[in-house]
Amino acid sequence: MCGIFFSLSASGGASPTQETSDLLQKRGPDSYTTHTVQKDIQAHGVTLACHLTFTSTVLSLRGDHVYTQPLVDSESQSVLCWNGEAWKIQGERVQGNDTERVFNLFLQAVKHDAVNGIAEAVSSISGPFAFVFYDAVNSKLYYSRDCLGRRSLLQGVDHEGNLKICSICDSASVDCFQEVGTDGVYTIDLDHTLNPQSFQSKTMPWGSGLLKQHIQPMNTSLPEDPPALTTDSPFVIELQSKLRQSLELRIQNIPEPPNYITGQSAKIAVLFSGGLDCTLLARLSHEILPPNEPIDLLNVAFENPRVAAAAKLNQKTPSPLSIYENCPDRMTGRSAHAELQKTCPGRIWRFVAIDIPYSECLSHRDFVKRLMRPHNTEMDMSIACALYFASRGQGSATTDPLVPSGPLYTSTARVILSGLGADELFAGYGRHGAAFARGGFEALIAEIDLDVSRLGSRNLGRDDRVLSHWGRETRFPFLDEEFVSWVVSAPVWEKCGFGLPDAVEGIDCEKMALRLVALRLGMERVAREKKRAIQFGARTAKMETGRSKGTDALT
């Protein structure tokens, strides 16, 4: 995980504010470097000095040492700021540090046909990314996010006319920023900029012939007489294998974090509600990681005064402990922890109970609002607060499900796993069932297709800005490009159980294929767990009494 700041200015260099610099260093605590370039631009017969400022921070998770950024090519003076994980390039797994591999790939690409070369290079990368690349040979600037939008990148022109591209909003011009789209690679030709005060970019869209589309089209075939799904169905068996392959890329060969103690410290943590998706990732991680490596399960619960007030009306005075232990995600988390211990007894499963009093939530609220910008609704805040405190990884830790509390602990893990994406791919939301009831398989397919198509434009950028604040990188095994393409190309009746004959008692239609994988792995209770949104499971939604809606803008 890295932090990026770039500015393009015709009126002198534009550096990030001190606040922005501090936030970028929280994302990447291992390195902070700035590189500047001055280039003359001819506009309307006048020569103007154009200033390019590149700042990068680094959280080092690949290779055997810290690779500082920005990378600068000594021969051409081209520059790269890279925030991503190139798991594969041209289908081959990347060993060691990926940033240098990507930089060399870009440098080779621009030697002949710059635009087509960059398009081919970006198309060959599999993994989450955001980058800014200056091709000094051809005087072109390129910047982009991956097609699923798994890394944050914002852009805006400030009041002085400076173009800024940053992982977070620069505090000097927060109102000017919007998220860089996930529709392709943006390019600015510095030799043909007619008006340096308003730099215009062009877009090379995904699937345009230049940029290869990573995600396959949705399978829209309709069933005639679909068979029941079972734990022995070929799709379910292959699903388990494909998910494990995606997970292997993301949890193998992670370097030891600072102050690491073998057998005690964790390299991996899971955003852990006890639900199906996150518990599946934890269970499969057990089969991949060495048996002496602990896994931290980060479970967050909030004191919600509205819930407490309702309890008082019912003449029930909750104890301080039950405020958190009665949160839905805490109860399912405890249950799933016990099932993991039972199924995989040789591993240290450290359950980290993260209890957040209402007063602490209020004290951090403005800061969370700062991180999640330009998102600015009540629902954004509810979700962002849960992710912010969960990724801090600080709470009461215990390895025994029968012992509900333990000493205060802060996770050492620098990599966090998230189950995000499973609901969109496997029809896990209530609206999917409603779509099927309304219009059968055709309406269900359309609803899933809509969800998958807007993954890159909805919440992943916001989540990245919030989760990364504590110097940890969140990885999404369900959002691996190859995995997503494989799932969307499968017929809908292999992914969920709507319209199918009942085959396994007590298994819900939503995400049925994933539930059957859980059964194959011995997770009986988790396979039957109901879907619950994080803001309701952790009780960050509707903390105050009133009629505010999730879509209401924050004041």
Summarize the structure in words.
With 555 residues, this protein is α+β, with helices and mostly antiparallel strands. It folds into two domains: 2-205, 4-Layer Sandwich (Glutamine Phosphoribosylpyrophosphate, subunit 1, domain 1); 234-255 and 262-537, 3-Layer(aba) Sandwich (Rossmann fold), CATH 3.40.50.620. It contains 17 helices and 22 strands. The protein has helices spanning 18-27, 98-109, 114-123, 234-251, 276-288, 305-313, 320-325, 328-343, 358-372, 378-392, 422-426, 430-453, 460-467, 481-488, 512-520, 524-527, 534-537, and strands spanning 2-9, 31-43, 46-58, 71-72, 79-84, 88-89, 92-93, 125-126, 129-135, 140-145, 154-157, 163-166, 178-179, 184-189, 202-205, 268-271, 295-302, 349-356, 394-398, 408-410, 415-417, 473-475. The strands form four sheets. The protein has a seven-stranded mixed sheet, with helices on both faces. A six-stranded antiparallel sheet has the order 2-3-1-12-11-13, with helices on one face. It has a six-stranded antiparallel sheet with strand order 4-5-9-10-14-15, with helices on one face. α9 packs across α10 (378-392). The longest helix is centred in the C-terminal third of the chain and has 24 residues, at 430-453.
